[in-house]
């Protein structure tokens, strides 16, 4: 029997506010343990929380970007459970009256977006490490109370690969909004996946399990794939999948059980008595709307419809905000054609910079636009321009000056080019004979020979034209 996965995602996003969700402690990363705390975030008796207005505004921005329905009023709840990283014995979250409902991003529907506070950080020292001379687990409360937006999808995802791709789009969207730095390594973006399988064609849901706190796209994809395979193995051997919370170990690829998966009633939700309901004012909504930038999906559509980019190139640019910004700045500063410039960025520049922000590189947008313009004007060949780009990446500078200094200008001496072609044909008589017979496949050998002789200064198209002319083709 064939089975299909049914996957829903829960994403926790640390919001880029100055202070915590319910107190005035400043947020930090990497500070000495327990130096960013106060009676409120430590849950000391008598301390009262106050909701962070900026966190609410950022939550509204997320809801607007995901086309959610925004609640006119919303309330906080106590989510009760005991764990060492939860100083109050409960977490302030939202339950049946969240900030945002519905919406979608791409082909995945959004169930809800709600606000809550983060837990503290547990630090474990096992047999390989000791704290204060003995094996122990300790708690750093600096993170406790950090504002979180939890984004919950409908179970619309059907593969591990789709989950990874959609999360990349979500992270790009959130980064573009400026609501979070979405740094997965530092825990600013964490993902849980609810996974079940069912026979293909069935509309009923199977028993779901939850993979917790995956913090890289590669681990998310691998973890989901491993859990799908585990569930298929259980069902195909006649067993039943148990509802539980699981941990995926990326080092071994193994999945282990953490605990039975809780339902809502297990948390004994009730309204937070120390916080008044949130009233979403027109002023707050207007502020959130005014801060919305053009989102990646809309930007990709604009690149495609207005600038003539292919759908794939438009997405490659728009879904990497730093490259899209670089591209638009290069377009503004030079008359380069949009399509060649986009192709040079998505192919040549990204290959050299990798994950580096192009705005932080030594290649300025104006310099790349100028280089692409030199190629379009046939003042330098593609091969020569690649050498110039290598120089720009290493040292920066002016493309025209590099072309002049390195002697990389396109060959405009017909006599020199004729001589190089004659030498190439003479050195490869068998290739020349195949070309005369109408077999054009080995033309690259002749072009390559000429390129070596001219140090990349010859134009491949012109070489092909002259070779055909010389051979009477």
Q: What value does the average pLDDT take?
A: 89
Poorly predicted parts = none
**Helix amount:** 25-40%
Count every helix, treating DSSP H or I runs of 4 or more residues as helices. Answer: 15
Q: What share of residues are in beta strands? A: 15-25%
- What's the total count of β strands? 17
List the defining traits of the structure above.
473 residues; alpha+beta; Arc Repressor Mutant, subunit A; 3 domains; 10-stranded mixed beta sheet; 3-stranded antiparallel beta sheet; 17 strands; elongated
SSE layout and pairing:
Elements: E1 3-14, H1 53-65, E2 69-70, E3 73-74, E4 77-80, E5 90-93, E6 100-101, E7 104-105, E8 108-117, E9 121-125, E10 136-140, E11 147-153, H2 160-177, E12 189-199, E13 209-214, H3 217-236, E14 244-249, E15 254-260, E16 270-271, E17 278-279, H4 282-290, H5 296-307, H6 311-318, H7 321-333, H8 338-353, H9 365-376, H10 382-395, H11 399-406, H12 414-427, H13 429-436, H14 443-453, H15 460-470
Parallel strand pairs: 13-14
Antiparallel strand pairs: 1-11, 1-12, 2-6, 3-17, 4-5, 4-16, 6-8, 7-8, 8-11, 9-10, 12-13, 14-15
């Amino acid at each position: 029997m064939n089975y299909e996965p049914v996957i829903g995602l829960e994403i926790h996003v640390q919001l880029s506010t100055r202070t915590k969700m319910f107190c005035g402690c400043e947020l930090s990363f990497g500070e000495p343990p327990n130096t960013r705390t106060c009676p409120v975030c430590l849950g000391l008796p008598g301390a009262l929380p106050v909701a962070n207005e900026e966190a609410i505004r950022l939550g509204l921005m997320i809801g607007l970007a995901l086309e959610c329905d925004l609640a006119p009023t919303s309330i906080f709840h106590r989510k009760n459970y005991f764990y060492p990283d939860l100083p109050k014995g409960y977490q302030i979250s939202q339950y049946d009256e969240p900030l945002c409902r519905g919406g979608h991003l791409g082909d995945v529907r959004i169930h809800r977006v709600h606000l809550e506070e983060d837990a503290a950080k547990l630090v474990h020292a096992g047999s390989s490490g000791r704290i204060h001379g003995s094996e122990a687990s300790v708690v750093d409360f600096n993170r406790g109370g950090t504002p979180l937006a939890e984004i919950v999808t409908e179970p619309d995802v059907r593969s591990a690969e789709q989950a990874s791709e959609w999360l990349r789009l979500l992270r790009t969207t959130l980064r573009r909004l400026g609501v979070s730095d979405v740094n997965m390594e530092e825990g600013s973006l964490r993902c849980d996946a609810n996974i079940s399988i069912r026979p293909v064609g069935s509309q009923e849901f199977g028993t779901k399990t939850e993979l917790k706190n995956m913090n890289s796209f590669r681990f998310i994809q691998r973890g989901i794939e491993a859990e799908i395979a585990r569930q298929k193995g259980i069902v195909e051997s006649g067993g039943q999948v148990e509802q539980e919370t699981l941990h995926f170990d990326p080092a071994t690829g193994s999945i282990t059980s953490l605990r039975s998966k809780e339902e809502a009633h297990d948390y004994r939700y009730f309204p937070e008595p120390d916080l008044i309901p949130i009233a979403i004012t027109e002023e707050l909504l207007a502020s959130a709307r005014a801060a919305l930038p053009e989102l990646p999906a809309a930007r990709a559509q604009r690149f495609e419809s207005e600038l003539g980019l292919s759908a794939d190139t438009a997405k490659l640019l728009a879904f990497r905000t730093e490259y899209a910004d670089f591209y638009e700045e290069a377009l503004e500063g030079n008359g380069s054609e949009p399509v060649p410039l986009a192709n040079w960025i998505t192919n040549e520049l990204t290959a050299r910079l990798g994950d580096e922000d192009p705005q932080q590189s030594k290649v300025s947008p104006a310099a790349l636009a100028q280089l692409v313009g030199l190629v379009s004007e046939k003042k330098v060949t593609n091969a020569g321009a690649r050498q110039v780009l290598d120089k720009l990446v290493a040292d920066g500078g002016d493309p025209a000056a590099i072309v002049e200094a390195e002697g990389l200008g396109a060959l405009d001496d017909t006599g020199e080019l004729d001589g190089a072609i004659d030498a190439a044909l003479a050195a490869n008589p068998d290739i020349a004979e195949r070309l005369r017979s109408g077999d054009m496949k080995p033309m690259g050998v002749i072009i390559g020979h000429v390129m070596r002789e001219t140090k990349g200064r010859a134009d491949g198209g012109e070489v092909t034209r002259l070779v055909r002319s010389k051979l009477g083709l």
